[in-house]
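Below is how a single chain appears once it has passed through the pipeline. First comes the sequence as given, then the structure the pipeline wrote out for it. We keep one example in the README because the format questions we get most often are answered faster by looking than by reading.
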Amino acid sequence: MIDHTVRLERMIENDRKRQKQTLYPTFGFIALFIIYFMTTDVLLLLPIILVGQFPMLYKSWHRMKLLLTFNDDARYQEKVRSEFGLAVGNLVFLLLLITSSILGWITLLTFIIVVLVGLITFIVLGYRIDRELKTIDPQHVTGTELSKAQLERQKRKTS
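Resulting structure:
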C-alpha cells in the first residue's frame, strides 16, 4: 500500500499534467463552437456547456487510472470505478437535458431547475463516494485534501 503523502504528490502531479493537456483543446473546442454557432441560429450556450464536460471526463479517467494503482482491494477499486461512472453519468445527464431542451420537450425554466438539482445530486454523490473510499482505505487522498494541498503549493510558489 502506498503512503498518503506519496499519493498526494502523485495526484497533484497528475492534476497538473492533465490541466496542461486539457487547457488548449478546451479553448480550441470553444472557439470552434463559437465560430460555428455564430454563423447559424442555434443556441450557443448549451453546446458549450456540453463541450466543457469533456476535459472533466478526461481528467476523471486519468484520476481513476491513478487511484486504481494505489490499492488492490476489490471494494476500493469498485468505488473508484463508480466515481468515474458518476462523471460519465453527469455527461449523459447533461446530454439528455440539452437534447430535450433543443427539441422543445422542456422549457428553459424546467431545464435550469433540473440542471441545478441534478448537479447538486452528482456533487453530493461524489463526496459520498470519496468518504466511502476513505473508510475503505485510510491512506486515500480525498478531493478536499487534494485541493487544500494544491492551494498551499500555489501559495508557496507566489510567496
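The chain has one domain: 4-154.

See the next section for the split statistics.
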